[in-house]
Amino acid sequence: MTQDSRPLIVQGDGSLLLDVHNDSFEKSRGEISAYAELEKSPEHVHTYRITPLSLWNAAGAGWISSKVEESLSRWSRYSVPENIIAQIRDILSRWGKLRLVNLEKETSSGDSDLWLRLEIDDAAVWEELKARKALAKWLVPSEKGFLVRLVDRGTIKAELIRIGYPIVDLAPLKDGDPLEIKLREISLDGKPFTIRDYQVNAIDSFVGTGEPGTGFGTVVMPCGSGKTVVGIGTMAAMATHTLILTTNVAAVHQWRNELLDKTYLKKEQIAEYTGDRKEVAPVTVATYQILTWRKNKISPFPHFDLFRKHSWGLIIYDEVHLLPAPVFRVTAEIQSVRRIGLTATLIREDGAERDVFTLVGPKRFDIPWKELEALGWIAEARCREIRINLPKESRIPYAIAEKRRKIRLAAENSRKIDIALQLVKNRHEDQILVIGQYISQLEEIAGRLKVPIITGKTPNLERDRIYNDFRNGRERVIVVSKVANFAIDLPDASVAIQLSGSFGSRQEEAQRLGRILRPKDRDSWFYSLVSRGTVEEDFAVNRQRFLTEQGYRYTIDIWEDL
Questions:
Q1: Within this chain, do residues 296 and 358 fall inside the same structural domain, yes or no?
Q2: 3-state helix, strand, coil in the chain (%, to 5)
Q3: Cα(189)–Cα(209) distance, rounded to whole angstroms?
Q4: Domain boundary among 48, 72, 93
């Protein structure tokens, strides 16, 4: 490949421009996304940006500055600006300069087990941190750096990364109570069970050597690629009591069924900790909702004791990108426990990716969606946005409405119902999910289709019945609200029709696409209905960024042209 034919332009402001039409686009995109964040993804040129967090996540996965520089030079059409090379070297040089380690000798009070040492190689950095009064409550100056209370282990990591200093945590992790977890070779449904090569790599990247600095981190894999299997394989490798946190009761049941199906654990060894049942066993599966429940805004969180009153050796954060803020707090406290985050995307619309990085752990493994699609492990998906004019009677009310009202008027465009009904009719051989944000809209289309609907108010037993009917083919179409975005296994779903979403959320787009990515004998289709000339178009641009990050192409059609 000649230099003039390369797909990338690296600019002096840290942005990377990638030519979508270049023959090397797919290969270069997969490499660049390991150390840069996608910002914009129009149809011709995608814009990435190198940031400290993107580089530190790359460092956590084994990238060093020379490897990043080599990658940029390989794909760049022009010479990489010197200031960008200097910036990369400076940012990555901070990785490893601050290290949390065990305290080698007792403190003056004789309680060395309650303290860690923050080692710092650079005297100037030591002086800078010492001079920051806001850090004084967590950092006690000492000869080789600072002393840090064990309970502040997570907090100080989060505080220091905010000012540009990542901490490499080399303090040992405690061993929880032992538990042998043996994997089956034949699952209960009679099918052979083996862990795929990429799943083994994900497990190995987390487990590492077992030495300090390993045993915590995040694994990023597409929906439908077997993140639950990675969790189960990690449990088998760790052989310890495990707490699994997930998004809803249906996901709790799914985890329990998978554990029984793929391991020799007995039913009494796996407990559910939810609003309905609060039991604890060597393997306990809980919801984020029950952990964050409290009587009122000033009351304590009574169920946080689940973290502290049992000798867990491993915590699994399912859908870690959804980790609630109160759980971040307790996660900061329990930094001595091995922990793995599972997610399809580290994107958080609240910008709290840094907290996932510091409190759960850096990205240890990431595999592009299109790579697994090419190998046949997830379905090929076609993404199509259909733009629809507002009906005439809605145009003036939309024009004079305040912003929040505009959002709802655009989302509930009455023409979407007729178009969704037509799509369902056209895809008469597919199993279809109709997904939306607003309950009245969902109830209307469910009534017209005469199909079941699942919302936040649907009882758990009724949800399970509807999901099972869909899995077994007794229902071909179901209507679901955002409660079905996460951790639901519907392997035969091949079409998703999105009526509306959460203000351009990329993580929601990832989850909804993931509902239809289980391998099957036909392509999957993801339709998104967008009101033309409204705020929904702006939201759609943001949502598309996730799909573009994963290598998907998004076609846009105007309904009148079809």
A1: yes
A2: 40, 20, 40
A3: 34
A4: 93
Report whether 85 contacts 105 (CB < 8 A): no
The pLDDT > 70 percentage for the chain reads 90
For residue 58, is pLDDT > 70? yes
Whether 544 and 397 share a structural domain: yes
Residue 362: what residue type? P
User: Distance of CA 15 to CAs 48, 60, 61, 88, 243, Å?
Assistant: 6, 22, 22, 13, 41
User: Tokens 């994900």 identify what position?
Assistant: 202
| Cα-trace Rg, the chain | 25
Whether 53 and 354 have beta carbons less than 8 Å apart is answered as yes
Q: Indicate the SS3 state at residue 36.
A: coil
Across the strands, what pairs with 479?
A: 434, 453
Question: Which CATH number goes with the domain that contains 415?
Answer: 3.40.50.300
Question: C-alpha 278: how far from its chain's center?
Answer: 27
Sign of the C-alpha dihedral computed for residues 129, 132, 133 and 137 taken in this order: negative
d(CA 253, CA 317): 16
> Which positions ≥6 away from 510 have C-beta within 8 Å?
223, 344, 345, 347, 546, 550
Task: Give the pLDDT band (50/70/90) at residue 514.
Answer: low
Q: What angle do CA 75, 47, 381 make, to 5 degrees?
A: 90
Closest CA to 489 of 129, 263, 224: 224
With a cut of 50, say whether residue 107 has pLDDT above it: no
Q: Give the number of residues written for the chain.
A: 562
Strands 15-19 and 477-480: unpaired
Rounded-to-integer distance, Cα 556 and Cα 562, Å: 11
| pTM, 2 dp | 0.78
Which residues, 6+ apart, have CB-to-CB distance to 519 below 8 Å?
A: 224, 376, 377, 378, 379
pLDDT digits (tens, 9 = 90+) for 392-439: 999 999 989 998 899 899 989 999 999 999 999 999 888 899 998 899
Closest CA to 483 of 519, 503, 506, 458: 458
Specify the amino acid at residue 400.
Answer: I
> Would you state the pLDDT for residue 106?
47
Shared domain for 346 and 236, answered yes or no, is: yes
Bridge partners, 216 (sequence order): 339
**Cβ–Cβ < 8 Å for 112, 105:** yes
Q: Which domain holds residue 288?
A: 197-367
Structure tokens at 35: 């150390």
- Structural domain count, the chain: 4
Single-letter amino acid code for the residue at 72:
L
55/61 Cα distance (integer angstroms): 10
Residues 391, 410: Cα–Cα separation, whole Å:
10
Burial 367-382 (b: 16+ CB within 10 A, else e): bbbbbbbeeebbbebe
The H-assigned helical ranges of 184-226 are: 197-207
